[in-house]
From TrEMBL:
It catalyses: inosine + phosphate = alpha-D-ribose 1-phosphate + hypoxanthine; adenosine + H2O + H(+) = inosine + NH4(+); adenosine + phosphate = alpha-D-ribose 1-phosphate + adenine; S-methyl-5'-thioadenosine + phosphate = 5-(methylsulfanyl)-alpha-D-ribose 1-phosphate + adenine. InterPro entries: Cu_polyphenol_OxRdtase, Cu_polyphenol_OxRdtase_sf, Cytotoxic_necrot_fac-like_cat. One of its GO terms (molecular function) is hydrolase activity. It comes from Rhodoblastus acidophilus. Keywords: Hydrolase, Metal-binding, Transferase, Zinc. This is Polyphenol oxidase. CDD domains: YfiH. Belongs to the purine nucleoside phosphorylase YfiH/LACC1 family.
Amino acid sequence: MTGRIEAIQAQALYGVRHGFFTRRGGVSSGVYATLNGGVGSQDDPSAVAENRARMAGFLGVAAENFLVPYQIHSADALVVSAPWRPEARPRCDGLVTATPGLGLGVTGADCGVLLMADRTAGVIGAAHSGWKGALTGMVEGLVAAMEVLGARRENICGALGPTIAQKSYEVGPEFFQRFVAEDAGFARFFLPSATAGHFMFDLPGLIESRVERAGLGRFENLRLDTYSDEERFFSYRRTTHRKEPDYGRLVAGISLPA
């Protein structure tokens, strides 16, 4: 699986430098083969650094200017204008910038990875949205942060990258109750599973509904299932089911080249 770095691009973001990177084209081995972008994994740090440098090169920015936060499953988005030291990564799940020469990235391995851009304003954003972020407002947080820099939501285009699909995401009754307690309408994102009392959860559908409510100009769901496509994507849930010791992280990135 080594070789040329592979990135999937969205039509909605045509003309903006971006990529939803697959697991192909890196230097990692074993369960991390080959393009693991997770500094929080147990992979060789030098391999992860090389993988991220390759992603930065694809995005047209210097490796030290490719910024990925310390993700905490929040709805917090941060405006950035300069790189930070590796040990000073901010704890948040969204980044936005209007600074040329910077690239923004987020990691995922089943959770939603979102990229957004307002070409007219020259503002870009990236966000990680698992079920907690989708429930608590990560989409809205990212859009609001972009507006601080002059973006207009009707001009924002965005895309949802590889995310675990409903057919692959079984949850228990407590999970379902948490959502319907927040909004009874969220029941539409659940279908009964083959296991009594359990459900199949539509995380991409929930994220897309939050985007629609936010009023973006254009949005594309790539409809790629991380769990079922092992050749291209890492999956936390697949790793858990197999009782593997660890898993690689996918990266989604977007940039404003200088």
